[in-house]
Amino acid sequence: MAEIDPEQPFVSHLIELRTRLLRMLYGIGVVFAVLVPFSNKIYTLLAGPLLAHLPANSSMIAIQVISPLLTPLKLCLVLSIFIAMPWVLYQLWAFVAPGLYQSEKQLALPILTSSTVLFYCGMAFAYFGVMPLIFAFITATAPEGVSVMTDINEYLDFVLTLFFAFGIAFEVPVATVILVLMNITTPDALAAKRPYIVLASFVVGMLLTPPDVISQTLLAVPMWGLFEIGVFFSRILLRRRMAASGESQATGVDHLHHR
After folding, report:
1. Separation between Cα atoms, residue 137 and residue 133, nearest integer Å
2. DSSP state of 143
3. What is the DSSP letter of 127?
4. CA 175 to CA 93: how far, in whole Å?
5. Rg (CA), the chain
6. What is the pLDDT of residues 53-73, one digit of tens each?
């Protein structure tokens, strides 16, 4: 009987991981190839919230020589990652899922889906709700004699910071539910810490957003609201788990009585 090499499973896992990583890169590359021909139009669309509030004699500028070429391409690359995120998460799921129990699969898939949707919602909130207010405030408070002419690369970095900050902030309900389901805390314990959560939301808003009060507040307040939503749904899920546990125990007792 041939002996099984103990390194074979490890090597096969490495090969599977490499395959999944390559598929992730292929997916991002395909989206990037589709977006590149429209890179300038996409950047103009992204700059819309600022351009709408610039004075008539102002415009965006490119300080570095190669910025007009590289900045739209940089935007397309980041946008490709955002768009291909469901495909990337699917590849991660396909790699990890075979090693999970059925109960873990039932929990992990909704968490991955909801976290992706919430991240997109955070980006949409930043673009449609936060950015117009920020740029309207900034352009309105410019000193007299100062022309507001933002560098296109600096603007992109600013906007990407907002997108990441609000995308991560919108993951608060998922994080809350995970903490409760893992028995690390309880909904009542989280609710008792509400004043600290509110304070922490404003601290996080100060750290993750650009240094202006508007963006900090517009991040902190939704984080607080999303925390409350997470506590609400964690209570529901906890009640369902307790109900299911009670039913399973009752079924076991009935089975013993029948015996």
Report:
1. 6
2. P
3. I
4. 18
5. 24
6. 887 777 888 888 898 999 999
